[in-house]
What does this fold into?
Amino acid sequence: MTLYLWQKPLNPDSATGQTCLSQAHKSGDRVECRCRVPAPPMYIAAIGGRFIVKRMPGTGPDHAIDCPCFLAPEELSGLAQIQASAITEDPDDGTTTLKLGFPLRKNCKGRTAPEQTGAKPTEAKAAPRKLTITSVLHFLWHEADLGKWYPRMEGKRFWGVIHNALRRAAEAKIVKGQDLARILYVPEFFKLEDKSQIAARRNRVFTNLRPAGRGATPFGFVIAEYKGKEITPNGARFIFKHAPDCAFFADEVLSKKFDKVFGDQLRFLEAMGSGHAILIASFSIAKAGYPVLHEIGMMLVTDNWIPFEGLRELNVLNALTEQSRAFQKQMRFNLPVDAPIASAVLLDTADPIALFVATTPDDAGALAPLTKAAEETRYASWCWFDDGPMRPFPDQGASPSSHRSRPPEGGATGQSVRPSPVNERRASGDQRDTMWDSPILPKGASDHG
It folds into this structure.
């Protein structure tokens, strides 16, 4: 990725670059990302006392496939459904507002019912979309670029990297008028010798959630790796990895609902013998000072922290990793589990290729919309829709129009690479980016919206 400002190369991390970005931020000038011709515009945001360059909303597919700012089209995931509705970006101040479909406080008194006027409605409009608690986790994982994988990341992702990426992704995010980073707790990589300092930083987040007087009880968020829970006389103690000295409590009703909703996922993870269960929850601080859980969501990830849904998708992601492929996992966000989305998009081919995987190949009702989605995507598509073995992935750097993985006539069906439409925006001579060997993208380039 090569950034230009005022027709000159820009290094956002240098002192000179920060000065230029400050001036451009005041004047409203745009930065150019010259990964392609014409160059996609970028905007400047002031976050945490520094100026960073962010991708303009809706321009992810305009960037070259090997540019850190590339983002697959929103319709391949659940992002299209909530972008500009439940998620609103403001390029002028660099903030992103998230509309939540669940509370972030507990009122002491019941809410007053709205006044009933008896008047007929004068408008017909769709209900505004809002994020579920699980889709907040999906969004932050997506913003942190943790769904992207490059071969040179092997062995470089661990919880410390995940923690830093999620904290950075939460910056400049607004939820119900609050700064998300201020009320988000992500456990640090635990070191026994740093126990007291870690606890002090955690308590600063908890302090922000203490109720003022007799007012409403504010909620915060926790994102952590689930380790287990212990049944207590009044419910359960939830234990998270990297937070051994801080148990979260749930009442009996929530504890039983957790087992009912997430029991199958946790048993699947145990059967696989690998991977992680990432939990997100809203919580409050009791008067005695301990955290209490209110609403919980969960997401399974591979050993490399790539989200997955089901065994077949896990097999595809593991095969991609073992074959040293670069790809971007597509997230579901608000979409129901039976809504068709791409599982991933290859990032090491001449043009992007969308990968579609049927969770239940024998379910014709679920297969029909997935097949339609694969046929209508703007990219070439690789499909694994039958019960046969997984077919080879398209070659690295190969043009999708010259590659097929469909078996010969009379062989297994349901797996193919469809020719992609002509991509008129792709510039000749795009250079591969050296950022692939970094576990997360560089500061200033990774915080794009």
